[in-house]
Structure formats: C-alpha cells, structure tokens
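Progress note, sequence design subtask.
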C-alpha cells in the first residue's frame, strides 16, 4: 500500500511537469503566431541549432529580397548568417552555399586586407569601401562597394549592403574616352577659328594702308574684328562716331548690310537692305571728267564683289539735292570667307569736296594749311634746324601725353627710351629729305609708347615736319605672337622627340645609330617614329614607321602605333603576330583618326644573329654586307589600320658579322629631283660606297645623299635606323 502511494505521488509529479512544459509550448506557439519571435534555438546532438521563422518581420524580408543590392548579416569575423538572393546571384553560387560561408571566400586575394580592415572598423562605426569580389565558379571578378555597420542589439553582429559597380565603372571609362575626344575636337576648332581671325586681320591691314587719314579709324576696326564680342561693340561705336562713310555690303548684288552714321547722313536713311543698283539709280555718280554716270559694275563696291579688286582712292562727282558738285573719295576691298570665296565688300568713302578746295587754297593761304594741320588725327610737329618743336597740332597729346603748348620747345630726345643719337638722325633727314622711323618713347607720366613716324625736311626754309601715330598695341600684339610661336615650336620639338628614342639599349656585339629630321622646322609635327627595345626573352625589337599626314592627330597615331606594336612584340618576340594583333587594334581607331600607318618590325636574336621581320606597306629593309653587296628584305603587307583581319607575312634572315640592318622612312626613298626619286637604289648605292663605315657614319651619309639629291629640299620627314653587328 505504501509503495502504491509512493508511485501515485511520482505520477502526480510527472503529470505536473508535463503540464508546465505544455504551458511553455503554448506560450511559444502564441509568440510565433504573433510575430514576436524571428528564430528558435533548439538543442540537439550536434549542439544548438538556429531555426528562422517564415512569419517573422515578413515585410522587412520581402523588402530585402527585392533589393538589387546584396544584403548580408554576418558575425564579427565575417561568417554569413543571412544573405538575400541578390548577393548569391552576384557571386554566382546557390543561396544555401552562401549562408554559413565567410565573406573572405568571395573576395579577391588583393582585397583580403581591405575586407578584414572593413569588418574590424565596422564594429565601431558604419564604414564602406570598394571591394573586388570573385565568382568561385569561374573566377570572374565583380567590382563592388561594401557598406558595413553593427547590428543595433547584437554584440558581435554586422549587417552589410553590397552594391555591384560593374556598370558604373564601365560608364566612367566611356565618359573619360568621350571627354578626351571632345577636348581634341575643341582644340582643332580653336586652331581653325584662329586662322580665320588672322585672315581678317590681313584684310584690315590692307585697308589701313590705303587711306592715311583713316588709319586710326581702321585700326579700331581691325581691333574690333580681332575679338568676337568686344569687336561688335567697337564696330558699332566706330560706325556711329567716325566722320567717314563706311558701308558693308553682301554679295552678289551689293545689298547694304551696315552703314555708318556719317554715311546715312550723306545719302539719307532707309538704305539698309538696298542693293547698289537701286542706290545708283537714285544717286548718280560721275567720273571727274565724265558726262555720263559711272556704269554699275565699275562702281568701287561692285568691282570688289564682282572682280575681287582692292580699289584705292577712286574719286567720283555727285550732284547733291541743291545742285552742288560734291567730290567723293572711295576705297573698297572684297570680304572673303575662310575658303577664299567673296561673300561681300567693305567700302570706305567720304565727301572730300572741302578737302579738295582746301588743297587748292593751301598753295596761297596759310589759313588753309592750319585748317588741315589742326584737324588731322595724326600727330604733326614742326621743328627748327636744332630739332626743337616750334609748332604742334592737337593730336600730339594722344602720342606724347602733353598738350601742344607744353610740347613747344621740346625735342624727340626729351622722350626717348634709352640713348638716341639725334644728331646722326637729323643729318640723315637733311641728307635724304625724308625719313621713316619707329621710336620707343617715355611720356612724362612714365608710360611707354611705340611711335611710328615719317619726317620731311624743309617744307619751308628752316622748318621740318614730322607726322606720327601710336602703334603700341600693334607692336605688343606682334611681340606676343612671336613669343607664342616660339613656345609652340619648342612644344612641337619635345612632342616629336618623344617618338624617337634618345638612348637605345646597349647590346653587346652591336652598334646602333638613328636620326630624325623634320622636312620643315616650325610648328608642324610629323608622323615618323622609330624604336629599339628589349623583348621579354632578351631579343632585340627594331621598329620604324610613318603615319600618313601631319599634325597632332598624326603624332597621336604614331605614339599609339609605336606603343601597341612594342607591347605585342615585347611579350611574343614574334614579328608577324605582333603586326597582325596591332593592326586589329589600330583598325578600330580608323573611324577616329582616318589615317593609316606604314611600318616594319624586326626581331633580332643578338646571340645568333637570326632575324625575323614583317612589313606593313613600308619601304623594304636592306641588309648591307661588309663585302659591298646588299639585299632587300621584302615582306608584303597592307598598311596598319586599313583593314581589320589583314594577314601579314614573316620573313627570316641572318645578320652576319659586319652586316648592317638598315631601316628608313619614305622621306629618304622619295626624295625628289624634278620628276625622279632617290629610291631604294639610292640607299643601296650609299651602302656600297661605305663598306667599312660604322652605323653613325652610314646614317649621316644616307641622309646627306638624299638631301643632295633633292637639292637641299626634302619634302617629307626623314627617319633612319641602322643596327650593325660587329665584324
């Protein structure tokens, strides 16, 4: 009975324990149903196991799984506890293989230190860095940005967002290529605009020389045409204020585009847009001795437009509305575009009736002389026999910075910069009767000016007249242009030298010499290039080439070709393979550069003297023997960059003791005299006559022979490269 009672108590205890476990299970189920639990930790034979629950934070998980970026939850040492599908796709392995792996598994060896440092720093703050991942399946790499931060309530837990940067990197590379191409186009267009401005300057200078009285006005016009926006404002001011008729007309019928205020006042408003033919009908012009109007095509503006003439100082007679005869002095010149076609004309004209009357009266009246003297815009001074100024017109203030009354009693010596021998200059003036000079003066306020003047001796007994005008701006512009040209020439020289090796490698048992001479010294850069280099297996690469055309584009193509061929040859030591591969790359540049390259590549084994070579449309290589004989090494192939997929031949030869390997560009073989060329035969002839010469002497002899054949005028750049094996 006692044992039964004991057994009943044991059963009651077991029942009570089972009821407690049942209550705990019910509480757990309730928490799972309400979403209060994300996962369960269950003890098992292999230890604690974590089981995630589908229902926990379902909205958050849907968002994470929909992300384009990879999302990870990791331990502090990089063990992946959770990953979304985007990260699994990024590293190209199943999701179940990601979870439980360490992040280091997917990082390239070079970036392992970076990921370790990132994980360490993330324990203290949110950090990010660019990390290159690899796909274990095919070892392909993926550039990414990894952002890591500590989980809010986890002592050692980390969260990470992994962004694929593949498309970003590709886009950045494409933008850089486009930016560089755009800069080249801008530079080319800038040079074209500069050439157009220089042509317009030449036209303005011709007009300034045509009419002495309009020099200041046309100097302002020239300056207006030099600068775009300032030019328009200055031209408008000129047209509105200069007391001269200036008309700009369009071809072919001479329709008026612009007319100065003085011109509108003379012929009346409403002339803008009117053709010369219509104006001539309303405003008839006669020659000085004619009784019939001047024909339309003989009027100065139409002569400039129809015949391209520069018309100077043409006088015509016009009867005004009051019946008075007026004398008109006209100058005209054609306006041409950059192609040289006539697009219009500019006519400078004025009513010189009063001046004509003044010229007649000047012979008898000092009063008339003073009217001209005081009204001219050029500075005029009259000096005595000692060079002291006794009279000056108002325009002298613009030159000397002093009003006429303060200039009286001075001489040019009082304003000269540096020493000036007035006695010698004065003797020259009195002996020659007329003297032109350019002087640098210093005004009383310290400003420096450049003055151009012309003096005439003895306009009256003991009186000598000088006419001067300020050319400071013109001289400064000329000096700046010269300095810019010198700088450009230096830059061109440095750029060209970059295509020619200054110090070829030293090769035991061989001597190397080369030269490059541009056809014309200056700012034009050519496309010739040459190179001598060691290959990876110790052989010697020898390269020479010539890009069609000249200029920056040719130099860029030469540099590209030289580096491309050299890169392939360095690793392969195979001339044919290197030319084929280089052609495939350069053909893709054809759309950009629109040029082709002739070239020849030789690979020399310095130990055995064995030589392999391949040519891309280049003049044949010559082997010069110490016996005086020589051989042409032909290897036919299309110029580089013309056709993708073109095949190139390989030739082989042996360079024996005392033999010379001779390479050159067509600047040598195509040196001309009349209608004949120096040719390959000319090079062979030089080699035959210099069997004992070293490579330096051979290079000089070949160049001098080609230069002499062309009578000192080579039409193309010249490059020569010779490698000679010791005897």
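Output:
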């Amino acid at each position: 009975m006692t044992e039964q009672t004991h057994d009943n108590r044991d059963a009651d205890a077991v029942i009570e324990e089972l009821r407690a476990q049942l209550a705990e299970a019910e509480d757990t189920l309730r928490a799972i149903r309400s979403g209060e639990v994300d996962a369960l930790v269950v003890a098992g034979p292999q230890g604690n196991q974590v089981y995630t629950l589908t229902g926990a934070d379902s909205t958050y998980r849907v968002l994470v799984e929909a992300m384009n970026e990879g999302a990870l939850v990791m331990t502090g040492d990089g063990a992946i506890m959770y990953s979304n599908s985007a990260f699994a796709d990024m590293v190209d392995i199943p999701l179940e293989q990601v979870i439980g792996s360490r992040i280091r598994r997917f990082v390239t060896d070079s970036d392992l230190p970076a990921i370790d440092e990132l994980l360490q720093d993330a324990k203290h703050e949110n950090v990010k860095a660019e990390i290159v991942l690899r796909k274990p399946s095919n070892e392909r790499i993926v550039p990414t940005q990894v952002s890591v931060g500590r989980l809010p309530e986890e002592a050692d837990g980390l969260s990470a967002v992994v962004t694929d940067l593949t498309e970003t990197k590709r886009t950045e590379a494409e933008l850089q290529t486009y930016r560089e191409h755009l800069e080249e186009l801008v530079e080319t267009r800038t040079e074209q605009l500069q050439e157009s401005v220089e042509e317009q300057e030449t036209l303005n200078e011709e007009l300034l020389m045509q009419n002495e009285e309009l020099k200041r006005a046309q100097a302002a016009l020239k300056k207006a045409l030099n600068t775009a926006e300032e030019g328009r404002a200055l031209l408008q001011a000129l047209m509105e204020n200069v007391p001269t008729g200036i008309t700009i007309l369009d071809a072919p019928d001479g329709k008026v585009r612009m007319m100065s205020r003085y011109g509108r006042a003379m012929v009346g408003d409403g002339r803008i847009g009117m053709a010369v033919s219509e104006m001539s009908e309303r405003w008839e012009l006669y020659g000085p001795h004619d009784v019939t109007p001047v024909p339309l095509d003989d009027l100065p503006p139409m002569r400039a437009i129809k015949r391209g003439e520069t018309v100077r100082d043409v006088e015509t007679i016009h009867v005004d509305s009051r019946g008075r005869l007026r004398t008109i002095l006209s100058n005209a010149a054609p306006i041409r575009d950059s192609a040289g076609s006539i697009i219009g004309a500019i006519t400078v004209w004025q009513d010189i009736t009063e001046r004509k009357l003044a010229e007649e009266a000047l012979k008898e009246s000092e009063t008339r002389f003073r009217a001209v003297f005081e009204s001219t815009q050029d500075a005029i001074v009259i000096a005595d026999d000692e060079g002291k100024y006794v009279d000056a017109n108002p325009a002298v203030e613009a030159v000397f910075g002093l009003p006429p009354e303060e200039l009286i009693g001075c001489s040019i010596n009082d304003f000269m910069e540096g020493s000036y021998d007035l006695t010698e200059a004065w003797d020259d003036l009195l002996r020659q009767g007329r003297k032109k000079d350019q002087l640098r003066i210093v005004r009383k306020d310290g400003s420096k000016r450049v003055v151009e003047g012309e003096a005439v001796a003895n306009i009256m007994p003991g009186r000598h007249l000088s006419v001067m005008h300020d050319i400071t701006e013109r001289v400064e512009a000329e000096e700046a242009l010269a300095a810019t040209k010198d700088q450009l020439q230096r830059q061109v020289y440095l750029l060209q030298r970059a295509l020619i090796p200054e110090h070829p490698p030293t090769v035991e048992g061989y001597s190397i010499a080369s030269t490059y001479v541009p056809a014309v010294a200056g700012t034009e850069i050519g496309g010739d290039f040459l190179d001598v280099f060691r290959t990876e297996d110790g052989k010697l690469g020898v390269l020479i080439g010539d890009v069609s055309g000249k200029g920056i584009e040719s130099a860029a193509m030469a540099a590209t070709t030289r580096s491309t061929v050299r890169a392939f040859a360095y690793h392969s030591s195979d001339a044919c393979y290197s030319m084929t591969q280089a052609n495939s790359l350069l053909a893709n540049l054809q759309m950009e550069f629109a040029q082709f390259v002739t070239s020849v590549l030789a690979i020399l084994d310095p130990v055995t003297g064995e030589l392999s070579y391949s040519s891309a449309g280049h003049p044949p290589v010559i082997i010069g023997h110490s016996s005086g004989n020589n051989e042409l090494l032909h290897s036919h192939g299309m110029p580089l960059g013309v056709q993708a997929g073109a095949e190139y031949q390989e030739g082989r030869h042996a360079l024996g003791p005392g033999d010379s390997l001779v390479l050159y560009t067509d600047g040598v073989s195509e040196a001309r005299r009349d209608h004949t060329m120096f040719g390959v035969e000319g090079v062979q002839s030089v080699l035959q006559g210099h069997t004992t010469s070293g490579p330096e002497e051979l290079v000089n002899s070949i160049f001098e022979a080609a230069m002499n054949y062309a009578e000192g005028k080579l039409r193309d750049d010249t490059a020569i490269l010779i490698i000679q094996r010791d005897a």
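The longest strand covers residues 448-460. Work on this subtask will continue into the next period as scheduled.
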